[in-house]
Amino acid sequence: RAREMQQSVPPYEMLPAEVTMEELPRSTTVMLEEPPKPPQPPQPPPRDHLVWSLFNTVYGNVCCLGLLAFVFSVKSRDRKVLGDYSGALSYGSTAKYLNITALVINTIIAIIVITIVSLLIAGAIRQMQSATYMGNR
Asked: Would you indicate the residue range of the signal peptide (predicted)?
């Protein structure tokens, strides 16, 4: 390393006789080299949640949230193909939150429908039992 430093220093030159030290500019230039950075481990590509968005679009498209999630998933995949990982991460995150919202709303609706149907069936069974009981009297 010391030899490399010596080779990079310019050779010594004598000042011409007509130039004095007072006439020369008084400045010093210091060149610093940054040490090479260690290689970064490769980052995994951002997720686009395309399959999840497709299922939400097909099986439970409440308020078009599944369709919006699908659109953002496709945009995320396009950004990833172009190499814009920050844009892909942003679109993928939006698709993820839309998918979560659609899933929660679909689950709530399914629970409400199952509850209403079971109450209707229970009421119909009671009606039939009471009619049978009244008929046997």
From this structure: none
What is the spatial distance between Cα 110 and Cα 63, in angstroms, rounded to a whole number?
15
Q: Is 84 among the domain residues?
A: yes
d(C-alpha 50, C-alpha 75), whole Å: 10
Angstrom distances, CA of residue 128 to CA of 1, 45, 116, 132, 133: 98, 61, 18, 6, 9
Range of the domain at 98: 63-136
In eight-state DSSP terms, residue 23 is G
Which range has the worst mean pLDDT, 35-39, 50-54, 118-122? 35-39
Is position 11 within any domain? no
For residue 67, which amino acid is it?
Answer: L
Residues 6+ apart with CB under 8 A from 61: 67, 102
For the stretch 58-90, pLDDT in tens is 988 888 999 999 999 999 999 999 989 999 999
Q: How far apart are CA 67 and CA 102, in angstroms?
A: 10
Is pTM, for the whole model, over 0.85? Answer: no
Closest CA to 102 of 52, 35, 40, 50: 52
